[in-house]
Amino acid sequence: MLTLLVLLVHGYHPLAEDGGLYVAGILWKLNPTLFPHDTAFVTEHLRFSVFAPFVAALVHITHLPLPWILFLLYLLSTALTLFAARQLLRRIIASEPAQLAGVALLAAWWTLPVAATSLMMLDPYLTARSLSLPLSLLAIALALDDWRRTPRSLFLCALNLLLALLFHPLMTAYALAYIILLRLFRQHTVLPRLAILTASVLGVALLIQLTAPQESPALLAAEITRYYWFLSQWHSYELLGIIAPLLIFVALQRRRRIAFSPATTTLCRAAIALGLIATLVALLFARENIATHFVARLQPLRVFVLLYALMAMLLGVALQQLCFTTRPRAFQLRVMLRSIPFCVIIAFAAIMFEAQRSAFPASTHLELPNRPNPNPWTQAFLWSRDHTPRNALFAIDADYITTPGEDAQTFRATAQRSILPDHSKDGGEAAITPSLANAWFLGATAQTNLSALDEPTRDARLLPLGVNWLVLHTSAPTHHPCPYANSVVKVCSL
Question: Which of 223, 264, 399, 494 has its CA 20 to 30 A from that of 293?
């Protein structure tokens, strides 16, 4: 039921945002003749994960269309995440209603933005994170066990981490760091070991920074566009997204009216320590004005994705426990008090539903397989897929993904055609993969304000790059033939 709640409240947008990046890689695995231009923007991230080969293999084995495989895997990963959350909560509180409240609040907050990291706690589409996070949560649950009495838990913890590593190495590394801290806080002499561990992390970060190769101007340009790497560029309310969870963990470990097990204190202290260490590393080594940004490229603040999930679960438990352990004399007051957790979780779900509808105003809330999407951008991309040659090279406004009403629908995954690198998603790829920086800079610069340019300037930018198709705003002036147009965009032959 909670899996269906996640789907209905938060929606499903398989080709939006990072979902489109992963789907493009899967499409290339299924058909390597796709994306013959700037192929590296599709394939480069495949080197670090088995996600795309895994999904492509499922398509071959089951003979189901890719959209159905993505949808079914999304449901499975959602159920697995909720199951992992339940397994973790069973180890810190015996009350089943409290466990349910913790899992339910996680479901209600599914797409909660994680401070200004440009990530959501969990996504309304399938990515490698959709599989690595539940496996990491299972590993954390098993790390709470006494490994001396149950060595099987140690084996299963390592196995889950290994599987998570295959899907998303970076996020798994941060989960491993959390587990190391978790086991450290089970010891009696914590502070000296914690100080040594923190000093070691800072020393490694300093060594990486000092030995990092010099960066090209194109790479620097790509890195500076990732404002979420740099705390100095965050707004004050975004900084609260880091401070508030740590304060919540401090408060949760001090609650006496909640029937948490002693393991909860360990869980909260490890979360506080990990959050502080990651923030310290970001403050010292992820700054836009230093010569190299190798540490920034590792995005240490991504640890807060894991911390937000833990925070949601523990707050759900705390809410249920506070309302059920308070026993007013009046029966009516007792009934009202015990209905509060349900009402609060439903209210949060309603808020998140409205937030998701606002984030995707032009798209269907549930972009299910074989269901048409009214988004005019998506319709133009689909026309391009069906009416242009496979070796076509498109150009589009470099910031098209952030255009109001575009709903972050990705061109490559939808149109299955090559396109010059864009500012947003391809800029992120270039920022973490230096070999792509020059191609990104050239393509993104050529497409800057594309629809606002006069035609001679636009042609002079694009023709030398081999572009033969354009996606422009309907109002953009052009004498080139445009065989497709709708109220928002048109597709033109160059």
Answer: 399
pTM: 0.93
Please list, in sequence order, all residues whose beta carbon lies within 8 angstroms of the beta carbon of residue 101, skipping any fewer than 6 positions away. 316, 317, 319, 320, 341, 345
Phi first, then psi, for residue 471 (nearest 5°) are: -115, 115
Query: What DSSP assignment string belongs to 338-396?
Result: HHHHHHHHHHHHHHHHHHHHHHSTTS-SB--TT-----HHHHHHHHHHHHS-TT-EEEE
Query: 3-state class of 12 per DSSP?
Result: strand
121 touches 114 (CB < 8 A):
yes
- Judged on CB neighbours under 10 Å (0-12, 13-18, 19+), 473 is middle
Whole-angstrom Cα distance, residue 14 to residue 127?
9
DSSP string computed for 165-208 = HHH-HHHHHHHHHHHHHHHHTTSS-HHHHHHHHHHHHHHHHHHH
Phi, psi of 396 (to 5 degrees): -155, 160
pLDDT in tens, 228-274: 999 989 998 999 999 999 999 999 887 766 778 888 989 999 999 99
**Enclosing H/E stretch for 484:** strand 484-485
Helix/strand/coil for 485 = strand
By the 10 Å C-beta count (0-12 exposed, 13-18 middle, 19+ buried), 418 is classed as: buried
Can you say whether the dihedral through the CA atoms of 337, 342, 345, 351 is positive or negative? negative
Tens digit of pLDDT for each residue in 320-340?
888 776 666 565 566 666 788
